[in-house]
Amino acid sequence: MANLNITMDASAAISVLVNEASKPDLLIATAGRNLIAPNSVFWEVGNAFSAMLKRRALPLRTAIKALDLFNSLPIRYVDVNLSEALQVAHDAGIYAYDAYLLVCARTFNAPLLTLDKALKRAATSLNIKIVEY
Question: Would 24 be classed as within a structural domain?
Answer without folding.
Answer: yes
